[in-house]
Fold this protein.
Amino acid sequence: MIFQAVLSGIVMGCVYALIALSLVIIYKSTDVVNFAAGEFVMIAAYAGLLLLDHLSLNYALMVVLSVGLVFVLGAFFERTALNHIIGFRYAAEAALVPMVVATIGLSFMLKGAVRVIPATEEVLRLPPLFSGPPLFFGDLILQRQDLGIVGVAILVMVLLSVGFNLTATGKALRATSQNPRAAALIGIPVKRMRMMAWAVASGLAGISGILLGPKLLMTPDMGSVVMMGIAASIVGGFTSLIGCVVGGIVLGVVQNLVGIFISPQAIAVTPFFIIMVVLVVRPNGLFGEAMRLKKV
Amino acid sequence: MLDHAPNAKTEEMHQEETLIRMRAKIAAALAVLAAVTVQAWPGVSRAAEPGVTDAEITIGMFAPLSGPLVAYGVDPLAASRMLYEEANKAGGINGRKVKILVEDDKCNPNDLVAVVKKFVTVDNVFMLHGGSCTAALSAAIDYINREKVPYAMLNAAGDNAVFPPTKYVFGSFQGTQRSYAAAFAQFAAQHLKAKRAAVIVHDDDYGKANAAMAKATFDKLGVATVAIERIPPNISDVTAPLLKIREAKPDVILSGAYPAPAVLIAQKYGEFGMTNIPLLQSAQGIPTPSVFAKNVANPAALENFFYTWAFSDIGDPAVRTKYVDMFKAYNNGREPGPFMMSGLPSAMAVIEGLKMAGRDLTREGFVQAMEKLSLKTDAMPGLLEFGPNRRDAARTMVIIKYDGKSQKVMPGTYTWDGIEAN
Amino acid sequence: MYAELRASELAGLLLIIAAGLALPQILPGYFLYTGNSLMTYAILAIGLDLLLGWSGQFAFAHIAFFGIGIYGTALLESRAEVPFLLSVAISAAVAGLVGIAIGFPAARLRTVYLALATYAFAECAQWVFRTWDPVTGGPDGLRFRPPVIFGYETGSDQSSFPVVALILALAIGAALYLTKSKLGRQMCAIRDSEHVATASGIDVRRTKVIAFAISAVFAGIAGGVYTLFQTFVNADVLGVSQLVTVLTMVVIGGSGSIIGVLLGVVVIGLLPELLRAMPQSLLVWQEFIYGSILVLAIVFMPQGLWGLIKPRFIRRTGGCGRTPAQSIRAPAEASQ
């Protein structure tokens, strides 16, 4: 029984990890926590269902269009709303409160817009990418979609790590977050970097939506899974990409073990309890960098 | 900033201060004068009975018309309204037409109380009719009883607001959570001959009532409750509770889950090969059976699947057609969503109560009439009944077997006999 | 040590008390109920602003202290027959102690991490309220009787309105004293720059912890006020959406200024009531409209409403100079 719980926990953990990766990209580049990340996941899932069911597109095209939609949505939001708030400042820190409130407002807008459509009052489900009979390893059961989720999570993490550390754009993004004024001085287009970070992170949330739509079931409130992503990224260290995946897996497994050994009722509070404990005891999480001192 | 010569600044400040001080004193004095004066005015005389004129009865209706629970509010409210309109078309009730005012309670206690107070103190309605969420409407119960305004719930289960019963609150027109739990517990014991039962519910007020009543019914019928799992309503992975249930080796599994977790439970139950154990799901998790089956996406999981239902429309398609057509006629041809039927019984009961109260209509008279209600309708398998100490109208359910393609009503009806749970 | 109130401020407080006595005579219950709710939100919002606007601590635990205030007051009154004023005092003190307890670890955290940790604390508190059956009634919630204060019966909106107004006036008065005092200046200094504050000899950690405690006490008092005109509480009113509501009141009104916060309470508090007037078929758009207003307001008025209006009314700044809201628009002037 424990092994099944652990296995399912690892799969759910990768789900959380994908969302955590989206959050961390934005944080690494702009210091903002995107409270609307869950809603981007939700929009991509609903868009995908619309394209599949009503326009009968094939799966691959649906993925490209849905992910593309939230990619553009994220970039647009950053370019208009957030850019306006941050003004001509380089660092986001003083404008943090309005920016976070803006993301909260965005999440209401997206949820509200989706809820207006009568079809969304039923729980819906996006058909999975990987379907077919489940796989059996001895006593343990694994759905093919689950395996796909794990695979994609690891793949994305690897690609992002490579991107952030080895490509010029990635390094530029990191520079922008570490010291925006200096980055601007050496010619990095700070505004464009921020928009790109949001676009990539949103696209990533979109991919999560396509993978999670089948697993989490679709309601306008499915975005609440963002809290799990936040917990996962904190456990892993809010600035580390590997940390997201490890943190997600740790969170998923712990949740299931708590469900078995304490009670499923405690599952709801586990991520929050973990966030509190980690931030108090070891704020850097497992892999995070020591917190940088911002210039005064 | 602004640099004035220091002395000039102090002068200005001083004069400003004195002026403001004077103004403040005058304002305060005026306010106190106003308070005293207004207190002396005679009160406005009230109409004989609020909300009742020679030609009209005003009813204040409310439900969640926005927010996460909008699906549970919009159609049921529309269904109630349509019954009032039908009554108006047939000549009204004792010569009066029903006038409906509508507000959105968002299933939120603070909003619901605001809406109720607006209806009572500003719109002067005769009675209140609304509420889809028990927790939200519980916040208004004391006020409603204090102001002595008759109140009929819309489609809320209402357990906490009708037990203990209070004079002015009439509820549970599609059954309490207690009735749902008792019904499927009875079915499990009597029809499925189960000896070991597992229960999975949410950790909210509905789940608490569900679990308690299921266990009490099982205790009475000699069935062992081998597992009770409480899960949060927004759970995303039901592996842990289902593993624990599997460990406990039950003969039957009862689920009180909401729509999304109900699908997850059915899926995992299928995945873990537990389908030889009958799974009973309470109605709140199955708004539309065909959508449920599509979401579960595993026909094997539904081989042994049953759900409770409080209405007669599945057993008698003519009933369904009647009300769907009526709904479309009043709503621009729009097809009703899954919860439409739940809006019918409360309006039926209110209309009957108003008729019984007679032409000389008062709030007290209406309450007395409702206490005597014993109404058989084509929409419900049982009676809608109240009594001097009873405020939950419906206690009878039917059980439907659903295999993903067709629905079959199981023989018999299951009525909660009013036993208490602890 | 503590500065005096200006005449205009004193007048404002008297006006609130006078309105508290006068309005129940002329307005129907619904308006008084709305007024009572707004006044409760005002106490909450001022408490949050002391932490967020004046001390610069982006902390979200506020709603948990509100819950402690409500449950504490209700339980002490109904189970232990403790009179209202004492119940509120005890509950607010408990809230303050919890505030101190989380203040210590919170003092070490910066911005985003502080926000997340305190938000997590609020969620944990809500879970406790929801599952601790024997004490809080669990998911069924708690029904309580309105208190009788020195023979004066509260409970109806008419009778509790003057009491709520009085408590609000006292709360605003306390906040005014605080912000003009040495402690208030220390809080501002920390907000503007912790390094400079430490260099000036301020014990940053102690000040932060005190700010947390005071903010928690305000929330606890707001909880006590809630029991005057409501009769039921359960964990549903103590969650994220309430927290977001109070936060938006502070931010959209104008953080770092008491008038700004009060303005925000009125605007954001009345917004749902105004949206209620929409035609029924459009009601489902409320959520979207609310979110849009939020985004537009914060994008075009990051200083809040008061930040927009203030330069036209008042030339003198109060407290310790610029509010953090003003920092957003004018960083270049920081060195002046």
About this structure: The CA atoms of residues 272 and 286 of chain C lie 8 Å apart. Residues 7-237 of chain C form one domain.
